[in-house]
């Protein structure tokens, strides 16, 4: 790598509505993506997406209202980007920016900034440790399309997945150990929670579940603590990966378990799935069932996690 040439690092993420008035257009963008969900013929998808968004927006707005009126995911990803850029400062000229799929800053916006800064190469670093066509795949499809539209021909290096990246695993392991310590030595059931996917994706060869299992094996090897994988955030009438976290909580209560530690294994920053769905909705369910409930802290811009992202970037440069 020529250390005098600037490298652009794109942190690919979902994005989220920053204000309540953003919720409806955000949902339209989400449900318009056929790599996530196919709503009839392609020509009908935009119309169906707007209808579903209209139906879901009130509930989604209520959820976002419970966590301050919007998603913090842009702010958290910007913090990660700034921290990673600082961590890479001694390794060359790097420009690190968020690149969101369904809300600002969209890929077109981030690429424009990269072009204006005269980057000579690009590295796509998905903030999804576990590859799925619905997350990393969709973000990369959009990124390539936007590069083509903008006439950008810089070399693009892609980091597809990193489910057992050592510093990522070590950071998660420390969160688990901290969470276990909060129960003061009592028996605790560890539950790994990941965003669910339609089962059909897995049948078609999506490696998402295999990647989740790789992370869990690495964590259990490091901590010596065994856990159970479950899923959250289902939507729509198709068959989804299970078991769902609420089902697991009810089963644990029926088995007279007392303590539950939830580890959001597929999320690397705070957003509505962690702040509302897990820490409010599922906490209320668990406590209503008589369970003592805790959730591990998000990785956000933890220096150990950022060091792992730096290693991924440098590995891509050297590769």
- SSE string: EHHHEHEHEHEHHEHEHEH
Assigned CATH architecture of the domain at 166-295? 3-Layer(aba) Sandwich
Query: Which structural class do you get from the secondary structure elements?
Result: alpha/beta
- Identify the overall geometry: globular
**End-to-end CA span:** 10 Å
Any low-confidence stretches, pLDDT <50, length ≥5? Answer: none
- Proportion of residues in β-strands: 5-15%
Calculate Rg over CA atoms: 20 Å
Strand count: 8
Question: What number is the mean pLDDT?
Answer: 95
Lateral arrangement of strands in the main beta sheet: 2-1-3-4
Supply the CATH class of the domain at 166-295.
Alpha Beta
The percentage helix is: 40-55%
Structure description:
This protein has 319 residues and is α/β, with parallel strands linked by helices. The chain has helices at 23-31, 45-65, 73-87, 107-116, 133-150, 166-181, 199-203, 208-223, 245-254, 272-288, 303-318, and strands at residues 7-13, 94-100, 121-126, 156-158, 189-195, 227-232, 259-264, 292-295. Strand 7 (259-264), helix 10 and strand 8 (292-295) form a beta-alpha-beta unit. Helix 3 (73-87) packs across helix 11 (303-318). The radius of gyration is 20 Å and the shape is globular.
What brief labels describe this structure?
4-stranded parallel sheet, 14% strand, 11 helices, Rossmann fold, 319 residues, alpha/beta
Topology of helices and strands:
Blueprint (H helix, E strand, L loop, with lengths): L6 E7 L9 H9 L13 H21 L7 H15 L6 E7 L6 H10 L4 E6 L6 H18 L5 E3 L7 H16 L7 E7 L3 H5 L4 H16 L3 E6 L12 H10 L4 E6 L7 H17 L3 E4 L7 H16 L1
Helix pairs in contact: 1-2, 3-11, 4-5, 6-8, 6-11
